[in-house]
Design brief:
Domain Acyl-CoA oxidase/dehydrogenase middle: 136-229
Distance between the termini: 51 Å
Domain Acyl-CoA dehydrogenase/oxidase C-terminal: 243-387
Keywords: FAD, Flavoprotein, Oxidoreductase
CATH superfamily of the largest domain: Butyryl-CoA Dehydrogenase, subunit A, domain 3
Number of strands: 8
Helix content: 40-55%
Family: Belongs to the acyl-CoA dehydrogenase family.
Bound molecules: flavin-adenine dinucleotide
Shape: globular
Order of helices and strands: HHHHHEEEEEEEEHHHHHH
Pfam family, one: Acyl-CoA_dh_N
Number of helices: 11
Largest sheet: 4 strands, mixed
CATH topology of the largest domain: Butyryl-CoA Dehydrogenase, subunit A, domain 3
Amino acid sequence: MDFDESPAEVAFRAESLAFLEAQAKPFVVDALGDERSIFITDHDVESRYVKRCCDWQSVKYDYGWAGITWPKEYGGRGGTGFQDAIFRQEEAKFINASGVFAVGLGMAGPTLMAHGTDAQKDRFLKPMLRGEEVWCQLFSEPNAGSDLGGLATSAVRDGDEWIVNGQKVWNSGAHYSDWGILLTRTNLDASKHRGITYFLVDMRTPGIDVRPLRQITGAAHFNEVFLTDVRIPHENIIGQIDAGWGPMMTTLSNERTLIGGATRGDFTEIADLARRTGSHRSPALRQDLARSYTRSAILKFLGYRVRTATARGVAPGPESSIMKLLVSEHMSGQGDLVLAMQGAGGMLAGADALDGGRWQMEFLGQWSSKIGGGTDEIQRNTIGEKVLALPPEPRVDKNIPFRDIPK
Ligand SMILES: Cc1cc2nc3c(=O)[nH]c(=O)nc-3n(C[C@H](O)[C@H](O)[C@H](O)COP(=O)(O)OP(=O)(O)OC[C@H]3O[C@@H](n4cnc5c(N)ncnc54)[C@H](O)[C@@H]3O)c2cc1C
């Protein structure tokens, strides 16, 4: 593979930069805490951040830069994965505004395109792309995370509506979302992977109670969501009744690709921190710096591989598990490194710490990447089975009715 950009890609980068220089300036972040929604600890700052993300998405839409890989019929640019990566690299220099739309544009959108009806696509895709509607993911439950087939939130049909009862958990951004993608159990007599139905739910429907969960960073970016007699119109089902597993797999595969392919902080920032703290003179830390650089380079090339496959029409497969796993190892190694480079200063926090405590947040945030989007262990299982063709795990409850599985 030729890693140099083609003349067309060089031109695309210049075009992206020209647009960003002309339009992105008003949105440049004004405080470090604003940059990463996952790390925002103040409710008002977060509300400002969400609004700024929506405003910026709308500007991108107006100028034809929203949804670079999305088909033109849905308001996208119809571009390639490489163009998308180029634009995101340039955009990251101006504003970090993609987190708010990760579930919508990165997961719900592709799932709707693959499994939605024409009416659903017409209703939801353009408002999503214009940043008018923010989405969250209501999949995990207290007893169903890695094993989503164990989910128990029930949906019972009542004429043209379904009545939903149950509890979801770890739902990122649910407290500021307009819509949710929701998995429910609709058939207790089917096996665990069969009786699941996939819904789109308006987060303002009566009976939805969103309660934020505070994390180790001090931020509360995810929530518990309680659903009590929530009524959802039948037309909001994605795919078929009891057959939500297929669209769910589309969502999860896109989620892994999204997490694995996200633009990482530039290594020059890490190198700069090393110089400022004098860590570049420490033989031990130099080894860790080299490891960090190597991992980020491997991630870049794995990204090329995934995008090349996508450009040839191959859906993201087990490569996304490999990337997701490496990203989590990278975040974890880098989180430890940025703290170690500060020596005793690593024990400080907030305004007392170097760069306002930004690196401490990076250290504390490293665990989220090991769990969110599927844990490291689950990615290893997938790689073992799908890439290395190792024998699958025993699954004793796979072919029995859900109601007969011991709980
Ligand atoms: C930052 C973040 C954001 C998230 N956002 C969302 C969201 O928006 N929406 C949503 O629905 N969910 C979200 N989640 C939830 C996430 O998908 C789950 O936490 C994850 O799938 C793990 O499920 P669990 O927490 O129930 O852990 P469990 O599945 O109970 O796992 C516990 C431990 O057992 C291990 N384990 C489980 N099964 C196996 C196995 N078969 N083999 C080996 N080891 C195993 C796991 O690796 C883990 O170490 C988020 C999580 C995080 C951390």
